[in-house]
Structure formats: structure tokens, C-alpha cells
Amino acid sequence: MNIENTKAQMRKGVLEFCILSVLKEKDAYTSEILDTLKNAKLLVVEGTVYPLLTRLKNDGLLNYRWEESTSGPPRKYYGLTELGKTFLTELNSTWTELSDAVNIITNQN
User: Fold this and answer.
1) Measuring CA to CA, which residue among 88, 89, 81, 37 is closest to residue 58?
2) pLDDT at 29 > cutoff 60
3) What DSSP string runs through 17-80?
4) Which PANTHER family match (predicted)?
5) How much is the pTM?
6) Which of 8, 26, 53, 74 has the most crowded Cβ, counting Cβ within 10 A?
């Protein structure tokens, strides 16, 4: 069994939740989102994040706007929609329940 493959699948499973959480406080462009994830030691690549952002937008959880940049081309800033905020609240609740359950199971002697 390949442990790296299992670890990658675990990260992939929480990536949507993490991206929505990054956008909870303020709108951000893709590089900012990636930097936040990398700073938290959640290793992801652009090729994974771009399609996910598109899917979240198509699902009505995110919107975006273009903003001029002083150091290059315009940037696409993503933000949560009202539906996205509600969805994130539900994910937070589910994460707490799941995390508590896993901790109970994995901490048993």
C-alpha cells in the first residue's frame, strides 16, 4: 500500500472545505489562496485548485470579480456567495462531528 497516495486522498477530501474557509474572511485571488494553503502545510498545486474554484463557482458557492493589478495583468478575486456561506457553516458542523468521531476512535487504547 502506498502511504503517499492515501495521504494525498485525505488532503483532497478536505480541500474544498479549506478553500471556502480561506475565503470566509475576505475575497482572494488564486495565488493568495494557494499561499494560504501552503503556509498551513496543505500541499496543493495550481492544477488542482483552478478546476475546483471553477466547480465551486458553477455550484453557486463562489462568485468572482476582476481587479486591476499594479504588477501585471488583472486578477480574478473569488468570494463566497450567500449560498457559499451557508454551505461553509454546514461543512464546519460536519467537520467538527467527523473530527470528534475520528479522535474518539483513534485515541482508544
Assistant:
1) 81
2) yes
3) HHHHHHTTTS-EEHHHHHHHHHHTT----HHHHHHHHHHHHHTTSEEEEEEEETTEEEEEEEEE
4) PADR-FAMILY TRANSCRIPTIONAL REGULATOR (PTHR33169), TRANSCRIPTIONAL REGULATOR RV3488 (PTHR33169:SF14)
5) 0.87
6) 53
Confidence check: pLDDT of 109 > 80: no
Query: Cα 28 to chain center, whole Å?
Result: 12
How large is the angle between the packed helices 3-22 and 30-39, nearest 10 degrees?
A: 130
pLDDT (0 to 100) of residue 67: 94
Residue 81 CB partners (closer than 8 Å, separation 6+): 60, 61, 62, 63
CA distance 105 to 31: 37
Distance (Å, whole) CA 26 – CA 102: 30
